[in-house]
Amino acid sequence: MRPRAGLTILAAFAAASALLLTGCTSDPLADQYREGSGKNYIAGDGTISEYAADQRGEPIAFSGETVEGERFDSADTLGDVTVVNFWYAGCAPCRVEAPILEEVSQGFASNADTDAIDAPADSGVTFVGVNVRDQAGTAASFEKKYGVTYPSILDVESGSAQLAFAGPVPPAAVPTTIVLDREGRVAARILGQLTDASILESIVDGLLAEQA
User: Fold this and answer.
1) Longest Cα separation, the chain
2) Is residue 194 within 8 Å of 202, Cβ to Cβ?
3) Residue 4: CA count within 13 A, CB half-sphere
4) How far apart are the first and last CA of the chain?
5) pTM higher than 0.85 for the full model?
6) Axis crossing angle, helix 28-35 with helix 4-21, rounded to the nearest 10
7) Residues 6+ apart with CB under 8 A from 37
8) How far apart are CA 45 and CA 30, in angstroms?
9) Are 71 and 63 in contact (CB under 8 A)?
10) pLDDT class for 114, splitting at 50, 70, 90?
């Protein structure tokens, strides 16, 4: 059974997201939220939003304990392009996109090792997940099954990582992938399941090249 505190915070987060979504009556996410279909996630449509440098707002600061019991702090990734994926084990689209995210993560890691990225030597890419519902055991089993090697924050108890993103770009659908620029600002969002590695690779490459 999940802790009551986590349920309370996540309920508040869901309510806040619902209020934001209801501003647009044609929004399919809002429709799914209101219909209460029982599928336990709100499915995005894969919409990609990218934000120009002067429209990215303030840096997002977030932190938390990872599945492996270590500490992740976004302050440590400043200077990198950071890919943040919101997920949980029971979400069907999350299971489909997990190998794709891992492929992209490993691709950038390999390129960095061989100096193949056409970017400055000190550039880098960080991947981190935010698990919104699971305890460590469930999340760890998912990571093992789908070969996920980058860390994920367990956010079910505090909801703090989700709330950090709720103002400028609320991740109303799970999965949602948000890409932060080197300054920690929201530069892109993929709403729903990532369907092709090249989509995310192109977004990250563009951000790596911005300050090349």
Assistant:
1) 50
2) no
3) 0
4) 48
5) no
6) 130
7) none
8) 12
9) yes
10) very low
Beta strands in the chain (DSSP E): 47-50, 63-65, 71-73, 81-87, 125-131, 152-154, 176-180, 186-191
**pLDDT class for 47, splitting at 50, 70, 90?**
confident
Assess contact for 139 and 89: CB atoms under 8 A.
yes
User: 125-159 burial, b for 16+ CB within 10 Å, e for fewer?
Assistant: bbbbbbbbbbbbebbbebbeebebebbbbbbbbbb
- Closest to 17 measured CA to CA, from 206, 169, 123: 169
**Local confidence band at 169 (pLDDT 50, 70, 90 cut-offs):** low
Q: In this structure, which amino acid lies at residue 26?
A: S
| Euclidean distance between CA atoms 8 and 188, whole angstroms | 29
As given in the structure block, the two tokens for residue 8 are 């309370």
133 within 8 A of 156, measured Cβ to Cβ: yes
Write the DSSP assignment of 27-46 as a string of letters: -HHHHHHHHT-SSSSPPP--
| Helices and strands (H and E) in the chain: how many | 6, 8
Tokens 């920690």 sit at which residue? 184
Nearest to 156 by CA among 101, 93, 88, 92: 88
Q: Which two tokens stand for residue 70?
A: 């270590």
Contact 142, 52 (CB under 8 A): no
